[in-house]
Amino acid sequence: MTRMTVNGQPVHYRMDPRTPLLWALRDASNLTGTKYGCGIGMCGACTVNLDGRAVRSCQISIADAEGAFITTIEALSRSRDHPVQQAWIEKMVPQCGYCQSGVIMAVAALIDGNANPSDDEIDEAVTNICRCGTYPRMREAIRLAARVSRGEERLAAAPPPGIDPGDAAAHVAALTPPDEDADDDPGRIVTD
């Protein structure tokens, strides 16, 4: 019997202690944002944060995670306002999206521990594989997320879940104070 805290909730898994954390999260806790990619810890699609550090959940047994605090993509920010999530949306990083939850969790752990990472530190901390090759957009988003977390830049939060994409621009515009110098184009979104 293995006990840990998953997304702020105490969890008691009644599974074989050798079960990879990935399968406990997906199958027993129905947290399917953590993806199965390769099963050997190379791709990073299964990355979660364990006690504040990014780990490949396919390589950690639930016995090894005993007593740990696990955060999955579902609990990074319920309102999608974590700086990494905001930057990912702003820079339109995802293409197919399969790897993105793992990449976001790796970047969140990096930025939570180092709000001003160098390119070498980014390369060392974020080794996830993106089969679509969105690495240039990821790098831009990582730099943006770091600036946001340092308070140097501000982004409008993503619209809440359930907002129709066609209504998203109107939602953002409604939350954004008017720019005194802006023209009166109603289709223009004003951001800080």
UniProtKB/TrEMBL annotation:
Any one GO MF term held by the record is: oxidoreductase activity
Tell me the Pfam families matching this sequence: Fer2 (PF00111), Fer2_2 (PF01799)
Task: Report whether Cell cycle shows up as a keyword of the record.
Answer: no
Key word Oxidoreductase present: yes
What CDD domains does the database record attribute to this sequence? fer2 (cd00207)
Where the record annotates domain 2Fe-2S ferredoxin-type, the positions are: 1-76
Read off the InterPro entries from this record. Answer: 2Fe-2S-bd, 2Fe-2S-bd_dom_sf, 2Fe-2S_ferredoxin-like_sf, 2Fe-2S_ferredoxin-type, 2Fe2S_fd_BS, Beta-grasp_dom_sf, Diverse_Oxidoreductases
**What PROSITE patterns does this protein's entry cite?**
2FE2S_FER_1, 2FE2S_FER_2
Q: Which segments carry the region annotation Disordered?
A: 153-192
Domain of life of the organism encoding this protein: Bacteria
Q: Which UniProt keywords apply?
A: 2Fe-2S, Iron, Iron-sulfur, Metal-binding, Oxidoreductase
Q: Gene3D superfamilies, per this entry?
A: 3.10.20.30, [2Fe-2S]-binding domain
Alphabetized PANTHER family for the sequence: BLR6218 PROTEIN (PTHR44379:SF2), OXIDOREDUCTASE WITH IRON-SULFUR SUBUNIT (PTHR44379)
- The protein's name is Isoquinoline 1-oxidoreductase alpha subunit
* Native organism: Parasphingopyxis lamellibrachiae
Query: What does the record give as the organism's lineage?
Result: Bacteria, Pseudomonadati, Pseudomonadota, Alphaproteobacteria, Sphingomonadales
